[in-house]
Amino acid sequence: MKLKKVQLTPPQFLMCGFGITIMAGMLMLKLPVSTYDGISWLNALFTATSATTVTGLVTVDTGTVFTLFGEAIIMMLIQVGGLGFMTFAVLVILFLRKKITLKERLLIQEALSQTSIGGVVKLVLSLFIFSLIIELAGMVLLATVWVPEYGWMEGLHVSLFHSISAFNNAGFSLWSDNLIGYVGDPLINLVITGLFILGGIGFTVLVDVYKKPRFKKLTLHSKLMIVGTLIINTVALLFIFFAEYGNPDTLGGLSLMDKFWASYFQGVTTRTAGFNSLDIGSMEESSILFMMMLMFIGAGSGSTGSGIKLTTAIIIILTFITYLQNKSEVSVLGRTIRNNIVMRAFSITFAGFITIFFCLLGLTLTDPELPFLEVVFEVFSAFGTVGLSMGITDDLSAPGKIIIIILMFLGRVGPITLAFSLATIKPDRIRYAKEDVYTG
Amino acid sequence: MKLKKVQLTPPQFLMCGFGITIMAGMLMLKLPVSTYDGISWLNALFTATSATTVTGLVTVDTGTVFTLFGEAIIMMLIQVGGLGFMTFAVLVILFLRKKITLKERLLIQEALSQTSIGGVVKLVLSLFIFSLIIELAGMVLLATVWVPEYGWMEGLHVSLFHSISAFNNAGFSLWSDNLIGYVGDPLINLVITGLFILGGIGFTVLVDVYKKPRFKKLTLHSKLMIVGTLIINTVALLFIFFAEYGNPDTLGGLSLMDKFWASYFQGVTTRTAGFNSLDIGSMEESSILFMMMLMFIGAGSGSTGSGIKLTTAIIIILTFITYLQNKSEVSVLGRTIRNNIVMRAFSITFAGFITIFFCLLGLTLTDPELPFLEVVFEVFSAFGTVGLSMGITDDLSAPGKIIIIILMFLGRVGPITLAFSLATIKPDRIRYAKEDVYTG
Ligand SMILES: [K+]
Ligand SMILES: [K+]
To answer: What residue ranges are annotated as transmembrane (chains A, B) (predicted)?
Structure first.
């Protein structure tokens, strides 16, 4: 008897891996030992998807519904879905060595700045160890606040959970008001944001900075990510500070120092981590709209975060400027961006908008009675696997929850990965005559 | 004494022309003879902008506030802003012959499928005459319904007004419920839609079809416009038919035949004409969302309509498919689309989204108490110079109205034209080494 081997392309493999992890997670969360009073299949699927895709949207309160065992499963799903996403995928692709062209393999190696396959495996392993060390360090630092507050057992437990949740950009918290209770605590603010910024900037950037500590020597990708992160975080901080300054339900009642910490935290967390130290449902409409844009942009490529990615947004802006300047080649920091990369950036963005549009359309049919702004915010949050909510997650109808589940899944693997896993690639041999079309 | 000549680039010239027309229109609408009981400066500016940009959003009821003289001014502004937009611009550019490169001039000639400048002028004039004949024919056909209903004077007057409003995709009506009263009238439906489809498909397509009546011989642009218009109109008809079928406030109470006419009319009008035979404010949320997409896409290049244009949307979809197929050149119907055209399509779309985003952000600050869905709809409607509204136009605050005025202006001239008129073009001489950035 001979079994026919099923050959999966890397995108198909990735999708299947995610799907299997989510299903396994759902089954484990359904175990009686995971919850105090049980949980519905749909809520178990929702929680498993939210954890594996490191989103952080919740239909049940994590801290009160799940037992310590259940919380451990969620923590594991977050770890597999966040940290595992990139490293496992790379390992799998390298070990399988099927359907992967030399060009693709070289690209992966290039992405990790290594030259031999043995070196790549070693690198992935060291990244894995590095991440665990960071998570432990985060836990220790958080424990200095939470052990005195909650005692040893409970204090270490919440510190570990939040450290893993932060580094993997999951945004899950054990408190029903997330981190609102620590809005002005400098250590919590700095450690949590430090963890998710490290996790969200992308592994290639971390490796690059580790190897070449001087900015000038970094790859173009690392330079763009570092400069881009600084700029967008500063803009976000300022926007939220000024938009919410007088809002009595958010910054209004805080001291100037706490106002700063809250603006910093909410500005930085919105692109993908999804923790909140302010009440999202009480924020000004302008902040909500601005945060939707941040959630759409997201974090770095090959990171624990999602969204269209910061570099994608940068390339789109650069292309726009290039077009206005009547130039034909997109260039930045003394380097030219290949045309194929530009097409990829636009395709990713387009796929993102289309995905959001159709899911939103679906939700207007399944949940027409929910307020439109809240629904749009939820959709952007799920697509960016951010996990911020204006408070309607649990009010969604069952079909509505399924749409959000699909959206979190698509947001994490990327709609373009789905499209690739379905697309049949045709050879690009025939050349046609060029003819212009008027567009403006 | 010597006056220094101010040299304007074509985009700057276009913007100035529009601005001056709007200002002149505002002053004329402020004349006591234009209105029965006067009108505020802001509402006069709003009406003049809405007419000149062929939008059709109104803060005051056109039929009851303006005298016959005022209505004639609105009609004139519509004619100048719609029909005049392309023809005047082409004429002006050709006559000025300043700051216009040979390449640009050739492009214009190509756009109109002519080879000599004398021929272009002749062509523009014949297009002008052709348009007037179409408008007169439209008036005569509409009069067969409206003269029996309103008598000779009033009947001819409303027929002329609606014919001009339709051909120029303005969507202004003399009835406060627009065309809801004629929801099932086949002649009104066919004549009005016929007029705005002819006006909205783009002059180059009309000329092309006139010259080469066989489909195979048409330019790629004409083929895409004709096929695209058929497809998008059919999809829109079906969507609205099924989404609204059971809605008692829209299609629910109508006969099957009237349901068809209403779906056809609303599906076709939404991309830019902006008439309505259904109550927009009562439509389902899903229809509203779908209509926002239609309003964003808009009509044809060089037409009396706006939006990012149908061909722009087609090229974006084609590019996305091309990218998924791992091809490097975008091709359709046996022709390759130049890379520069692809970049232009994406830049136009990006500029559109950015414009909408910032205007929406502005409106959340100026009018936070208005419902979000209604405001988003209004913004898309103004950007696409469509003129459909869920009923909040008059409820906008003064700064809110100014934002919509700016948006109508930008929507008509195109945000990319504004950007071009501000951009300084730098030579594209330096070539950099290529370096990749990870985006997905
Ligand atoms: K998250
Ligand atoms: K219109």
So the answer is: 12-29, 72-96, 123-147, 187-210, 222-243, 288-321, 341-363, 402-425
Q: Does A306 touch chain B (CB under 8 A)?
A: no
Higher pLDDT, A235 or B217: A235
DSSP B50-68: HHHTT----SS-HHHHB-H
ipTM: 0.83
CA nearest B305 in A: which residue?
A: A440
Bridge-based pairing state of the strands A433-434 and B331-332: unpaired
Q: Percent of chain B scored above 90 by pLDDT? A: 30
Cβ neighbours for A296, distance < 8 A, ≥ 6 positions apart: A307, A308, A352, A356, A380, A383, A384
CA dihedral A349, A351, A353, A354 (to 10 degrees): 160
Q: Higher confidence at residue B87 or residue B398? A: B398
Task: Report the distance separating Cα A329 and Cα A336, nearest Å.
Answer: 7
More confident residue, B166 or B335: B166
Q: Which of A247, A372, A438 is the best residue to mutate to test the B interface, defined by the most B CB atoms within 10 Å of its own CB?
A: A438
CB A378 within 8 A of CB A59: no
CA distance A51 to A42: 14
Q: Are strands A433-434 and B335-336 parallel, antiparallel or unpaired?
A: parallel
Contact B421, B11 (CB under 8 A): yes
Q: In the 8-state DSSP scheme, what is residue A252? A: T
Region of B178 on the Ramachandran plot (φ > 0 left; ψ -120 to 50 alpha; else beta) = left
A219 in B contact zone (CB under 8 Å) = yes
Separation CA B433–CA A170 (nearest Å) = 38
- Give Cα separations from B141 to B134, B135, B144, B158, B161 (angstroms): 11, 10, 5, 12, 13
What is the arithmetic mean of pLDDT over B385-407? 92
Which uninterrupted H or E stretch holds A389? Answer: none
Query: What is the number of alpha carbons within 13 Å of residue B429 lying toward its C-beta?
Result: 3
The pLDDT of B396-413, averaged and rounded, is 92
B230 token code pair: 């058929």
The set of residues, in sequence order, having a beta carbon less than 8 Å from that of A410 and lying 6+ positions away, is A355, A383, A418
Tell me which ligand sits closest to the C-alpha of residue A82: 1
Q: How far apart are CA A406 and CA A411, in angstroms?
A: 8
Nearest-neighbour CA in chain B from A233: distance (Å): 19
A392-402 pLDDT, tens digit per residue, is: 998 999 999 99
Residue A127: CB atoms within 10 Å = 20
Residues of A in contact with B325 (CB under 8 A): 423-426, 428
The two structure tokens encoding residue A375: 């629904």
Centre of ligand 2 to C-alpha B196, Å, is 9
Q: Name the DSSP letter for residue A59.
A: S
Nearest ligand atom owner, CA of A299: 1
| Residues of B (5-44) whose Cβ lies below 8 Å from A | none
Mention every residue, 6+ apart, whose C-beta is less than 8 A from residue B247. B282, B283, B284
- What are B331's strand-pairing partners? B336
**pLDDT tens digits for A155-207?**
998 999 999 999 988 888 888 888 888 888 888 889 999 999 988 888 778 87
Measured CA to CA, the distance from residue B366 to residue A116 in angstroms comes to 58
**Cβ pairs A/B, distance under 8 A:** 231
Where are the alpha helices (H) located in B151-255, listed in sequence order?
A: 152-167, 186-200, 203-211, 220-244
End-to-end CA distance of chain B: 62
Q: Domain map of chain A by residue range?
A: 10-420
Give B-chain residues touching A348 at CB under 8 angstroms.
439-440
Judged by CB atoms within 8 Å, which residues 242-281 of A form the interface with B? Answer: none
Q: Identify the closest residue of chain A to B112 by CA–CA distance.
A: A438
Integer angstrom CA distances of residue A415 from A98, A309, A378, B51: 23, 13, 17, 41
Half-sphere exposure of B346 (CA within 13 A, CB side): 29
